[in-house]
Amino acid sequence: MQLVSLGQSDLRVTPICLGTMTFGEQVSEADAFAIMDRAVERGVNFMDTAEMYSVPARAETYGATETIMGNWFAARPGMRQKVVLATKVAGPSRGMDWVREDPGMRAEDIIASCEKSLKRLKTDVIDLYQIHWPERSVPAFGQIYYNPANERSKTTIHEQLQAMQALVRRGLVRHIGLSNETPYGVHEFVRLAEQHGLPRIATVQNVFCLISRGLENGLDETMHRLGVSLIPYSPLGFGLLTGKYDEHAPGDPGAPQDARIAKFESVRKQRWGRPEALVAARRYNALAKKYGLTPTKMALAWCYTRWQVASTIIGVTSVAQLDEDVDAWGTTLPAELLAEIDKVRWELRDPAA
């Protein structure tokens, strides 16, 4: 895998990024160590986490993933210098009062969260510090409509950038990014950074997979023209695009019971649990088999090779899953298959948007 640049930053990463949100919930510390060891052995130099992980978010596991990663860095002298480390500050609490008491995300909250993440990660600097979801009230995590009546913004984008600048000046953060953002948000972050000499976002981390391609409805043009890189998450649609739910729906008897979407009802209530999402996933999975591919390989190859994508975030719970996902790199999908994929999308659109 050749390294790719993130935005206009000097960050150079592999086109596969290890996502870690299962560490501390589904994955023990020992197993997480084995997964991270194997990722580096396979050539992956990019890892992503967040202060609110592991998932599903709850007070008992808040910060657990960063803590596990920090313990790994401490146990592997010199490894921190080999890894491009990304983490995220949580946006307004969305009911998670254990993150912070105030439901908003003030400039001082960004700084305090970064300092806490650094301690948990046992590092002096974060390579890519991202805002996990907008401080503004925007449709995210399966919502599709913007409603100005819900706006409760307390901190302007300018103020958020000033907080990031303070972290960069202190040497605690190298570059910044966004997650679950809209075209407006990306434009404003770039415009204000350039106007006021503030840190410029390098990346946006949004969902992008066969059953959730809303990014192609305008955000991809915004990012392309502004020189901002996409690092998509959930390329396998929370497991729907692996084929393991082709016979039995998540949560039903006969379906795998150890997967996130099966174990946690809160996940099934989100976009991934929609019946329409499963219908679409099964159509794509059938296409993969028609062309002699596993559903996992097709879904990952589709994401890996999209022009919009810089580095794809893969979330795994075992070394075997990691190897399968990395092994899919280099797969080229034939034009006929890509055409059939687009026909399904035209018919079923984006059921997990």
TrEMBL record:
Query: Which residue ranges does the record assign to the NADP-dependent oxidoreductase domain?
Result: 15-344
Q: Which domain of life is it from?
A: Bacteria
User: Which CDD domains does the protein's record reference?
Assistant: AKR_Tas-like
The UniProt GO MF terms for this protein read: oxidoreductase activity
This protein's UniProt keywords: Oxidoreductase
Q: Which PANTHER family match?
A: NAD(P)-LINKED OXIDOREDUCTASE SUPERFAMILY PROTEIN, NADH-SPECIFIC METHYLGLYOXAL REDUCTASE-RELATED
Name of the protein this chain belongs to: Aldo/keto reductase
Origin organism is: Caenimonas sedimenti
